[in-house]
Amino acid sequence: MQPELKIYSYSFNELDINIGLIEEAMGYGRGQSPEPFPDMIAHALGQCDQLCNIQGSLLVSGNFSVDKTGSFLIEGVTFNVGKKIARQLRNADGGALFICTAGAGIGERSKELMAAGDLIEGYILDVIGSVTVEAAIDKIQNSFESELNKFGNKIANRYSPGYCGWALSEQKQFFALFPENQCGIKLSDSCLMDPIKSVSGVIGFGTNVKKTAYECQMCELETCIYRKIRLAKAK
Ligand code: SF4
Predict the structure, then answer these.
(1) Ligand 1 centre and the CA of 216: distance in Å?
(2) Is 225's C-beta closer than 6 angstroms to any atom of ligand 1?
(3) Which domain holds residue 60?
(4) For the chain, what percent of residues have pLDDT higher than 70?
(5) What is the CATH number of the domain that holds 122?
(6) Is residue 232 scored above 70 in pLDDT?
(7) Phi, psi of 219, deg, nearest 5
């Protein structure tokens, strides 16, 4: 059976991103950032519907199996994801590969501001870009999960190349499974995504899988951009 390609797009305003969420991503509590941050964040948020072009895609396949020693096979391609991810996926009947982007505009504007010396404005837009792409993939995942639940299926945690033991270099074979330029995302030679505010990864699904707490508390990757987000969601 052919894999199914699902396509999603959202406006920035549909994602309900507010000042509190950005404060949290900046390391403050909600409503706790000092002046002039709240006004600056509000001003930046007001520009984001124009700056963002939010798109996502899922490649959903039942042609999927897991070797619990550290890999999964989807559409004939093996991904060496390590034991941590393989353990999470081991009971999945299928896998959905995802890509999602906030678009090029927000990252470019952030860089322009920084180059012009407006470091705080640039930083705030950079943070909003990261929160946007995470909110968009959350929305896609929730929509996919609701669809699956109707048929008694559930989803496992989502995982991305470059994190939790999955090498970033596997992005090349990952993107080769999608149509070229899907969602306007391209890979650099070093396997980074362009636009920069983009994410990719896998969600396992089936009757016998479940979401569990991420193992961020015990992980050694101190610089992981997901650590704060995952730990905040676990509270
Ligand atoms: S900190 Fe958490 S999300 Fe990041 S690599 Fe470690 S386990 Fe994965």
Answers:
(1) 5
(2) no
(3) 4-210
(4) 98
(5) 3.40.109.40
(6) no
(7) -85, 145
